[in-house]
Specification:
The chain is of the alpha/beta class. It folds into two domains: about 1-150, Alpha/beta knot (3-Layer(aba) Sandwich); about 170-225, Orthogonal Bundle (Trp Operon Repressor, Chain A). It has helices at about 10-15, 20-25, 65-75, 95-100, 120-125, 140-150, 165, 195, 200-220, and strands spanning about 1-5, 30-35, 50, 60, 80-90, 105-110, 115, 130, 185, 190. Bound molecules: adenine.
């Protein structure tokens, strides 16, 4: 997979996408991430990419021209399966979406900034708008990092134990069961007996029952979702 990210704040993305599992995935060439500064496509001598909104109002708006040139140039080099804009008014990101996106080959992500971007970019160039939740961030960079993280870890070969992504919370619309490690007792707090029993069928049944119980208690909405 190749992911191109267009941003006015490249530094904000470098570090979260260059640690631990994602770093290894990049080094192993499972995923290529290229972060582009939109200012590169500005024809303004001050490299400005924002301007005042028509009709007045507070905040600045990302200009259509630099983004148009950026997307046009990158699209001439490869064809993108999705051109994503990160925005609080996009479709809410979830595990099902991450699964679908993880099957794609080339992604282009445009990080929103300022008050927003010129609507013509959204109307003519963007194929998908994604929100990571019902709250407003200062920009779309952290949202892009969240999407990349959730998607990349699903690509085969990224996690050491490939089955571990399959047992994640949400993969079957259930929260994951609790996990424990040594010691078997600490401070009088005991690990559930069944996990020490060595009886795999009982352990699997316990985990399934715990998943269901947790989901009922903490996220009953998941049990009624069809996705
Ligand atoms: N940009 C600002 N807030 C956002 C959000 N919640 N999701 C995606 N992009 C955003």
């Amino acid at each position: 997979m190749r992911i191109d990210i267009l941003t006015v704040l490249p530094a904000l993305l470098e570090s979260p996408l260059n640690e631990s599992i994602l770093k290894r995935a990049r080094e192993n060439k499972v995923v290529e991430i290229v972060i582009h500064d939109i200012r590169k496509w500005s024809n303004n001598k001050h490299r400005r990419v924002d301007d005042y909104p028509y009709g007045g109002g507070s905040g600045m708006v990302m200009m259509v021209e630099p983004v148009f040139h950026a997307i046009t140039e990158l699209s001439s080099e490869r064809s993108y399966d999705m051109i994503i804009y990160t925005s609080p008014d996009g479709e809410r990101f979830n595990q099902a979406m991450a699964n679908k996106i993880s099957l794609k080959k080339n992604l282009l992500i445009l990080c929103g900034h300022y008050k927003g971007i010129d609507q013509r970019i959204r109307d003519h160039l963007i194929t998908h708008e994604i929100s990571i939740g019902d709250y407003v961030l200062t920009g779309g960079e952290l949202a892009a990092a969240v999407i990349c993280d959730a998607v990349i870890r699903l690509i085969p070969g990224v996690l050491n134990d490939e089955t571990s992504a399959l047992s994640d919370s949400f993969q079957d619309n259930l929260l994951a069961p609790p996990v424990y490690t040594r010691p078997a007792e600490f401070n009088g707090w005991k690990v559930p007996e069944v996990l020490l029993s060595g009886h795999q069928a009982n352990i699997d049944a316990w985990r399934q029952q715990q998943s269901l119980e947790r989901t009922h208690r903490l996220r009953p909405d998941l049990l009624t979702e069809n996705d």
